[in-house]
């Protein structure tokens, strides 16, 4: 009934969608298997893409030929660049999306791809022969042959929803859990555990008093994610901000005795950085209020997402507390919040390509690896799709270094450190974040995508234009001088000391309160020159000038580190035979099988002394 596919992907969430696109765009014949084609790419939790560090990941996905940024640009209802008061390494794009249109756009783009086919059914296991994955088995008993398989099961593996004292076997509200896969993988030697995440109540926006809350507008003009020619957002919907209060906390505390979180019914570990409202009240008892973001779900729907009010308390407790929040006195719920527990597999059981160690040609991506968030999942799907294709072609795995991308940091952290709580990306996790900015993701990664064979011709053309413009702007500011009287008023306005003599523009730009926009507004000749270029090129040139010293030092540090990254280690090494290694190093490195000395140095528990022993072992 089924031909042998190059790649079979189990799960139609963000990881599955990007995996399908990545493999298909490289030429693989792909089958995407999902329990319900109506919810492909569904935004299970908040209707937004991007955010701190997550926005950088979306731009990296786009630079590598993925679709998340394109879909977001086509379906967003608001755009904001976060952390603009900080340095450019911290700037992070975030978009509020139209939930229904987001999923629809993804599905239509997938269906338009000639290399992607679909099958709607539950997968209950994989098929193997001699330790090699050969396909998947469905609930109807069908076997679908495949050269490689990617599991992107999200929260569906033995998923249980908790609302108060009630438990419902489900992978998401209204959708049944997936069974069989976990049990089989454990039998094949995999280590599984449980994690927990949650979601807040959905509110009827027609019953909210919007005037009682703070308004949060989008940026004007709105930015976008994709480096391709996607439409620019001309009209935006506002979000709003409200707060809990002591009365809300008191009502929620009344339900703690029925909370699955506090009574031990939830065994899985929840996300540290996105806790439920009851967890916040318990952990931060001294706070009298917590911020809530009131986010519309789309252009036409009245459904509202109450970000910050995630809960697994009984629905009557949630409802009673909700109506004590300012602006929600007459609010109606569409459905209550809930917690969900699900199986995941320690990512230390994977190679850096996201192929599993126990079963060849089997890949994991997304929440099955212990991560949380659409963006983290999508990036893993992209990498798994690329590497599954390359495995079939007998090509070397595509692995991003920590100095090349947040995606590289994410996967490196997972494989070398594992995780005992839902892993979420932050800018602080990247030691080279001044190099990994959201504005230069295209410059960093699009050339790599082109080498892989992904069609990124449009993106590459824009990269070359951007670099040429950046160099032209930089040269102009390095060669052009400015007289003190020309910018005296501007410097005074910016709180910067006046010039005493003529000075090159790039030196003036090094002052912390001075930027190209302010200079252009003050000096007609500068304005006339700058107007030739788009905002993105001007911004990139300014960052290059202002942070040149820091960027150069960071690159020198990366070059030193890369010397260790270039010292390869064979995956056939038995570390117990190497004299001088600590017992912990032997255990950890036999488990992880690092590809390089650099990777070995980042494994938890590996000491500098162990690295010295390894360097001697490989003749360094």
Please give the structural blueprint.
Layout: E1 5-10, H1 14-25, E2 30-34, E3 48-50, H2 54-63, H3 68-75, E4 76-82, E5 92-97, H4 99-111, E6 116-120, E7 123-129, E8 132-138, E9 143-151, E10 160-163, E11 166-169, H5 181-187, E12 192-204, E13 214-216, E14 239-243, H6 246-254, H7 260-263, H8 277-283, E15 291-296, E16 303-310, H9 315-322, E17 333-335, E18 338-345, E19 362-364, H10 374-392, H11 406-417, H12 441-452, H13 457-479, E20 481-482, H14 488-493, E21 503-504, H15 505-509, H16 516-522, H17 524-530, H18 535-546, H19 548-565, H20 583-592, H21 597-601, H22 608-617
Notable traits:
620 residues; alpha+beta; Elongation Factor Tu (Ef-tu), domain 3; Arc Repressor Mutant, subunit A; DNA polymerase, domain 1; nine-stranded antiparallel sheet; seven-stranded mixed sheet; 21 strands; 19% strand
Task: Describe the protein in words.
The strands form four sheets. Strands 10, 11, 12, 13, 14, 15, 16, 17 and 18 form a nine-stranded antiparallel sheet that branches. Among the domains are: 200-337, Elongation Factor Tu (Ef-tu), domain 3 (Beta Barrel); 457-552, tRNA uridine 5-carboxymethylaminomethyl modification enzyme MnmG/GidA (Arc Repressor Mutant, subunit A); 566-617, GidA associated domain, C-terminal subdomain (DNA polymerase, domain 1, Orthogonal Bundle). It contains 22 helices and 21 strands. With 620 residues, the chain is of the alpha+beta class. α1 (14-25) links the parallel β1 and β2.
């Amino acid at each position: 009934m089924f031909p042998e596919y190059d790649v079979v992907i189990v799960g139609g969430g963000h990881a599955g969608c990007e995996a399908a696109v990545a493999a298909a765009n490289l030429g693989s014949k792909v089958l995407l298997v999902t329990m319900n084609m109506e919810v492909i790419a569904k935004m299970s939790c908040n209707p937004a893409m991007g955010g701190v560090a997550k926005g950088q990941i979306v731009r990296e996905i786009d630079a590598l030929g993925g679709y998340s940024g394109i879909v977001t640009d086509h379906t967003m209802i608001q755009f904001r660049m976060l952390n603009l008061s900080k340095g450019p390494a911290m700037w992070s794009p975030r978009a509020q999306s139209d939930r229904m249109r987001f999923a629809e756009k993804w599905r239509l783009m997938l269906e338009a791809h000639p290399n992607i086919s679909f099958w709607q059914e539950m997968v209950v296991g994989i098929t193997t022969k001699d330790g090699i994955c050969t396909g998947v088995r469905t609930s109807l008993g069908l076997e679908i042959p495949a050269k490689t398989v990617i599991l992107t099961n999200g929260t569906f593996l033995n998923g249980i929803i908790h609302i108060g004292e009630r438990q419902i076997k489900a992978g998401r509200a209204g959708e049944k859990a997936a069974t069989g896969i976990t049990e089989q993988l454990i039998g094949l030697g995999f280590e599984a555990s449980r994690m927990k995440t949650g979601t807040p109540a959905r509110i009827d926006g027609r019953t909210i008093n919007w005037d009682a809350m703070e308004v949060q507008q989008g940026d004007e003009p709105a930015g976008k994610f994709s480096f391709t020619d996607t439409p620019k957002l001309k009209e935006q919907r506002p979000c709003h901000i409200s707060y809990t209060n002591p009365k809300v906390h008191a009502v929620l505390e009344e339900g703690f005795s029925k909370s699955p979180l506090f009574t031990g019914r939830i065994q899985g570990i929840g996300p540290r950085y996105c806790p439920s409202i009851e967890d916040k009240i318990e952990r931060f008892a001294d706070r009298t209020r917590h911020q809530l973001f009131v986010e519309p779900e789309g252009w036409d729907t009245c459904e509202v997402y109450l970000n910050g009010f995630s809960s697994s308390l009984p629905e009557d407790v949630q409802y009673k507390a909700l109506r004590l929040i300012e602006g929600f006195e007459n609010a109606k719920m569409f459905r209550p919040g809930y917690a969900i527990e699900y199986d995941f597999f320690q990512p230390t059981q994977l190679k850096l390509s996201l192929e599993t160690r126990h079963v060849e040609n089997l890949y994991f991506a997304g929440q099955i690896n212990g991560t949380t968030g659409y963006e983290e999942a999508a990036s893993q799907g992209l990498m798994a799709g690329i590497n599954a294709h390359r495995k079939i072609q007998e090509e070397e795995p595509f692995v991003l270094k920590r100095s090349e991308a947040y995606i590289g940091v994410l996967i490196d952290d997972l494989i070398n450190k594992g995780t005992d709580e839902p892993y979420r990306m932050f800018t602080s996790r990247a030691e080279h974040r001044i190099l990994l900015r959201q504005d230069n993701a295209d410059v960093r990664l699009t050339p790599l995508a082109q080498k892989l064979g992904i069609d990124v011709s449009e993106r590459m053309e824009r990269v070359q234009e951007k670099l040429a413009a950046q160099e032209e702007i930089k040269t102009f500011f390095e060669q052009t001088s400015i007289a003190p009287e020309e910018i005296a008023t501007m410097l005074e306005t910016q709180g910067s000391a006046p010039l005493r003599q003529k000075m090159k523009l790039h030196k003036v730009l090094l002052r912390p309160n001075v930027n190209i926009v302010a200079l252009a507004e003050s000096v007609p000749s500068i304005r006339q020159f700058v107007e030739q270029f788009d905002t993105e090129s001007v911004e990139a040139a300014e960052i290059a000038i202002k942070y040149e010293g820091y960027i150069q030092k960071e690159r020198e540090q990366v070059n030193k580190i890369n010397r260790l990254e270039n010292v390869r280690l064979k995956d056939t090494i038995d570390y117990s035979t190497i004299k001088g290694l600590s017992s912990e190093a032997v255990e950890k490195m036999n488990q992880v099988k690092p590809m390089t000395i650099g990777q070995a140095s980042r494994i938890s528990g590996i000491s500098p002394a162990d690295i010295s022993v390894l360097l001697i072992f490989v003749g360094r």
